[in-house]
């Protein structure tokens, strides 16, 4: 059956350029100032240019993030003290997601997009929305900081000494909420105005500040084990520079907004200003986020309970290290693409353009696949040398435990992106109830696997929770596809499934070759130099095998993805053959 959303004989576009894309502009241009009598609609840069700009910022940020994580491991390893810091530093993220990232992401872009059609370009509406949002996150930061002991107790089950240390860290870390909120609010205003670059580049500044703090900590106090005697100066440097990085990240979004022509004036009061639909969406989204965070708290409580005071098994910091690497494909590829697609999905829904909505959903499913599926296979094949190189202070046994956790998570990398698309889809269509029950499904599966962690040997508990995350995203992603097909009509997903199968098969074959080379090189020794050689050679084998097999199987979507790079390599020419 043909897809009614695609013209007869047309092949769904999978390249990084939309067939109807506007002329390319940089990520900091194309914004329509939110003022004036007759504001023009924001000029839409191509998805390719926008995604590439965001991916470049994410790449630099993630590289620095890995440096930061490696330095943190050098400072505290995977000790009980490391878990105390990880739990305290995670609390602002939980509350930020709860009150800011998800809620504001669900509301800001759809409401700003609507408001930009007003005679004043939405200036009054946006000023009031920003003011209300900032007051919310500042109030949340104050209250959460005051409740630090209760929050640490509610989200973990640490031994008494580590609990006290986590509370010390928490008092310094929780004020981050206000600046995470500032980053989210200003970032969504930038995204709604098609200014994508700064939102992805300012985390670079945060990482630079935090790396400086970790270097100072190592120089002054050195590595701290599970029995370390922590003092307030040590806590202040480790947690304080982490918080300072988030402060810089939030404030750094102000200059690009000003350069883009945006002017903000605090305006108070939202009643009677058209916030009715926004408040309904907020209610459903807030409930979904509470459910998601409760699921996260349950998983964290399980991990700390299973570990107890046993410093020799993986804990929260081990999970966080694995998750940091797991997020690389999502951050480089999926987030960049979906951030560029989200405003388009919103405008397509508001225009009741089902054809555009079908096309955008397919692009959200297909565009990331040619990069995310092979990156997932590569992470699984190279999990052990990745940890041996990035975290050289880990013992071989600790690195192997971390590798199993990453493998369990990496199984669901693509599905994680699909559930992110599901959230954007629901937010664009202002369907908070639908997002809530899909989140309920995901959380239920995750919590079920967390309960199963009590039934396995203690060293495998964190890996089981990682597998639960993968299974939960796979199940929810499949249900979302069925829901979107019901909402929009036939999506033409036979072509999408064919792409997944072909790319998945080629990725698995390349992963097996890579794993074989890595295993063979592993017999040369366990030193850092050997592990680096192992990672580099096996990684190169994976890339070359994937590209060669993709050409052999005529997967031209891979050429579309890598052509800009291959043009610069005279000995490799991407095929122009269409399948």
What do you see in this structure?
The chain has helices at 47-76, 80-115, 123-146, 148-155, 160-173, 176-192, 197-221, 232-251, 254-259, 276-307, 316-350, 354-366, 369-381, 383-390, 396-410, 413-428, 432-452, 461-488, 493-521, 528-552, 556-566. With 579 residues, the protein is mostly helical. It has a domain at 16-274. Helix 2 (80-115) runs parallel beside helix 6 (176-192) and helix 13 (369-381) packs antiparallel against helix 15. The longest helix is centred in the first third of the chain and has 36 residues, at 80-115. The protein is globular, with a radius of gyration of 24 Å.
Detail the topology: elements first, then pairings.
Elements lengths: L46 H30 L3 H36 L7 H24 L1 H8 L4 H14 L2 H17 L4 H25 L10 H20 L2 H6 L16 H32 L8 H35 L3 H13 L2 H13 L1 H8 L5 H15 L2 H16 L3 H21 L8 H28 L4 H29 L6 H25 L3 H11 L13
Concise structural overview:
The chain has helices spanning 47-76, 80-115, 123-146, 148-155, 160-173, 176-192, 197-221, 232-251, 254-259, 276-307, 316-350, 354-366, 369-381, 383-390, 396-410, 413-428, 432-452, 461-488, 493-521, 528-552, 556-566.
